[in-house]
Amino acid sequence: MFLRTRICRVKKRTKETSPDIGVPEFSEGSDTRGNLKFDEVEEKVMRSVVEHDKNEVGKGKMMSQAINQGFSSFHPDLMMDHLKKDYAQAHRLYGEGLLRLVSGYEPSVIKRNINIPEFRRELKQKIDEKLLELRQEGYLEKDGEITEKGYEMASLVLYTEELNHLVPEGIGGSKLHKEVAHYGDKSDVKGYKKGDRYRDIALKKSVKKALRRGHSALSKTDLQVFEREAKGSVYVVYGMDASGSMKGNKLEMAKKAGIALSFQAIEERDYAGLLVFGREVREEIAPTQDFGQLLKTITRVRANQETHFVKMIHESVKMFPPGKVTKHLVVLTDALPTIGKDPEKETLAAVGVARGAGITISVVGINLDQNGREFAEKIASLGQGRLYDVKHLEDMDTLILQDYYSVK
Question: Which terminus of the chain is less hemmed in, N or C, by CB atoms within 10 Å?
């Protein structure tokens, strides 16, 4: 079964926006741009998620939030042990969202009552029942491991939530490149010639020309058409920091920003790639128009360890195609480079190599401190890109898309 949706210029949803805007629709067809194939999740469940069924959406969010907290499996006995021994540590380990979804209780209620034996028994029963339901529906293996169906459900919920967060006709800006074909954006006008498209006729200017000539009707020689600057493909790679400090909500919003960028770039006939980095480059997808591959890879990302900028930038250089195409790397991070003898110096040297290969680099920084911001400014300046300072996590996707539309 395929899921299909479309967004064009995008912006944040407002309270006045219809709740149906941006909601994906089902369609049959080949798995091409904008089509997303799910092999494991049934059509009925997919429709329930699209229609915002709270129960089905909750199952997908449970998978997604477990992954974002660094887990690939659920173990109720271990979770209960953590909650009983040290609630504060358990709260940091599992996160509010996952605790709420697994138990059905607000975390504040768990904290207040966890030392009461009767409450513990009731809590354990609720967790067991929820995980049994997930196993029976095929989202978990018997040992608690997330199944392929579970990962698909997490992908589906991330996808629909992000597209429902965006509405058509928002962020402006367009990408102009004179090297490649495609019909481009309207510019100046010229006289009509054989082969020009009728849809490009500048009617008002044609009429004015006919009137100046004293013609009572438009003739072929009066026709003016809009010239169009060729709009060439952009190759953009999303460098997503998945170090330990990104765990939880930051990682979820980073994933959604990557989904928005990937979907929109591919809908615009551009190419999107992915680099997931922590201590090592952990996932790598060269710029592609396979949105399904990008979505499913982004969904599985878990946070751990330190930040290795240098390796990530060097790897990105290898991912772009040769030739005169627009090449752009946008890096999302919440920290300075931390690996190497002189991480900052080595990072700037790597940025120089990337620029030598024709790659521009922007940085989206999440609540960077003063030193972090100053260093990010150096990267963006040397990389001839832009620096975006994320103060609110919900703005992350908007900033990523602003950067995409700024690429010339």
Answer: C
H runs (alpha helix) in 137-199 = 148-164
Q: How many whole angstroms separate alpha carbon 43 and alpha carbon 362?
A: 39
Which residue type does 225 have? V
CB 304 within 8 A of CB 338: no
| Predicted structure pTM score | 0.79
At residue 239's C-alpha, the angle toward residues 402 and 371, to 5°, is 80
Which residues of the chain are under the pLDDT cut of 70? Answer: 1-36, 167-188, 195-199, 227-231, 305-307, 338, 340, 408
CA distances from 104 to 76, 126, 289, 408 (A): 14, 7, 39, 49
Residue 189's H or E segment, with its range, is: strand 185-191
* Whole-angstrom distance, CA of residue 63 vs CA of residue 246: 17
* Furthest CA-CA distance within the chain: 95
**CA 263 to chain CA mean position, Å:** 8
Other C-beta atoms within 10 Å of 7: how many?
Answer: 21
The CATH code for residues 234-406 is 3.40.50.410
- The CB density around residue 291, as the number of other CB atoms within 10 Å, is 22
Per the CB < 8 A criterion, the answer to whether 6 and 34 are in contact is yes
- 390: three-class secondary structure by DSSP: strand
CB-neighbour burial class of residue 201 (10 A; exposed 0-12, middle 13-18, buried 19+): middle
Query: Pairing mode, if any, of strands 35-37 and 359-366?
Result: unpaired
Q: Helix 249-267 and helix 54-68: axis angle, to 10°?
A: 110
CA angle, 376 then 353 then 387, to 5°: 20
Q: Where are the alpha helices (DSSP H) in 69-103?
A: 76-85, 87-94, 96-103
| Residue range 316-348, pLDDT digits in tens | 999 999 888 999 999 999 877 767 678 889 999
8 A C-beta contact, residue 227 and residue 319: no
Q: Are strands 224-229 and 281-288 parallel, antiparallel or unpaired?
A: unpaired
